[in-house]
Amino acid sequence: MTRFIGGKLAQYGLVLFLTVTLNFLLPRAMPGSPLSFLAGEEVGTLTTQERERLLREVGLDRPLHEQYVSYLGDLARGDLGYSYQRQRPIGEVLVERIPWTLLLTGLALLLSTGLGLVFGAIAAWRRGTRTDFASLAVFIFLESLPGFWLAMILIAVFAVELRLLPTFGARDLYAGLTGIAYWLDVARHLVLPVTTLTLITVSATFLTMRASMLAILGSEFVMVARGKGLSERAVVFRHAVPNAILPVATVFLLNLGQAVAGATVIETVFSYPGVGRLMYEAVLARDYPMLQGGFLVITVSVLIGNMIADLAYPILDPRVVRRD
Amino acid sequence: MTDPAAAKARYGLGLGVVGTSGLVLLSAIVLTALLAPVVAPYDPRETTGRPFEAPSGAHLLGTNDIGQDILSELIWGARVSLAIGALAATVGVSLGTGLGVVSGYFGRRIDALIMRTADVVLVVPFLPLMIVLAAYVGPSVVSLAIVIGALVWARPARVVRSLVLSQRNLDFVTAARSLGARDTRILRLCIFPAVVSLALAEFVQLASRAILLEAALAFLGLGDPVQKSWGSVLFYAQARGALMSAAWVWWVLPPGLLITATVVGIALVGFGVERVFTPRLRAR
Predict the structure, then answer these.
(1) Considering Cα of A133, then A134, then A137, then A143, what sign does the dihedral take?
(2) Nearest in space to B263 (alpha carbons), one of B220, B234, B231, B222
(3) Chain B closest CA to A179's CA: distance in Å?
(4) How far off is chain B from A43, nearest CA to CA, in Å?
(5) A147-205 pLDDT per residue, tens
(6) What is the pTM of this model?
């Protein structure tokens, strides 16, 4: 068990190291002046003297290994650098954005897991029937949809044509709402993005649950449960479902890590003020430090999510511990 | 061959009903893309109408913000989307199969190295990394395909490796080795034939994933500005406010449906391919 956790920690440490190093090397290794990546495109218009002063300020005149050490030192102090587009420290911008992303992706994750569980269980139980075939078809269709396009269609139908829901943002910025009215407004803004994200992520859970349920329904203890005369309902819901949930728990825990990463395109379409939208804005402005700061934070949250999954799994399924 | 399920699976190239319908769907899209110069009513780069025209006899899907024919854009865009999908899948599968075979056949240090690298690639958040890389590398069809391909090899590598591991110790491989066959000969004659079918199945999966990824990147404005794909058409539709008017019906709906149809088509063909290569499943 300790060896298992140790190995995982080493792996995550490696990922973190590679991400940080990639972030360090990309602006310096790419063709073109690293200055324009680190300080903005306007450096092209500066005089030679101004450029040299700026080079010294950013530390680009020093040897590469010294730059790397001071870069690591900055990160260790929580200094992610400075966004020249926003004229603010990157860490500050990220702290504002993360809660919105967590709200959006957290809700979608709960919904898609719940729906996937229920429909997956039903499809497996009704295996080979029209219900099974139809739900398989629907979920495979959902998996084939481009998420951003589904978002656009939902906006066009529900926000623009029917005027039922807001088209963009996370809250009404000018209404000055407080208390319950504020949260209702936030909820209204969440409906479409959460629906989109749920629909495009639900099929992974569905397919996992269906496959796992099929395996369980064919196993001996289910036969025993049937044999001792339990009702079909008791067999399925009290015996089969709880045992079939384990693989879904893994999918859920891994998605937990991807939650911060996953919503980039959806947030973009809805102008939702999360980390994903931030990445998009950084791309448009070619704000490379911001882009890298966002990428680093997302990687770290994925790693934390995976770590929680690794630690939680032996609790859910004690059998994996013995295998070590 | 008395098994009725197996007999049933053999009609339609052996792909089964599902696989065959996928093949038909996919061939229609691929053919249209190949015949673009013949089928497309206009050159998609020419201004052939007024801006924001609604569908009419002259422009079946209307025109975009600078008066280009949307239908022609989509027909030509199919080439870009499909090319990136195929190219990225080729890069990913070649890398994955190559590394998987090396890893499984030679084992030891090189195996450990390749598999640890694969673990790392699988953990890194995918789309954000692609966005960062695409932003630096710059948008062109080839670089997009290479970036996508370079990041999706880990899964095929793992699958191929485990197949090679099981293949390596089969009796006929041991026999060949004891007769003095070199590694290259064993790899070529004993290992590769077994790997090919698996690689094909992985190719199918990667292609659809690559098409969706390219669409997402193009939609974020990271597509090739010269070669418009379906994703780029959607990027411009969004940027020019197509959603706020009735134009979404002919400007936003069709490209997304085409992407979905292609991915569904690939998935169905995938089912068919799986049936052919894993006869075990046919009996079910």
Answers:
(1) negative
(2) B231
(3) 31
(4) 17
(5) 899 999 999 899 888 888 887 787 777 777 778 888 888 888 899 999 999 998 898 88
(6) 0.84
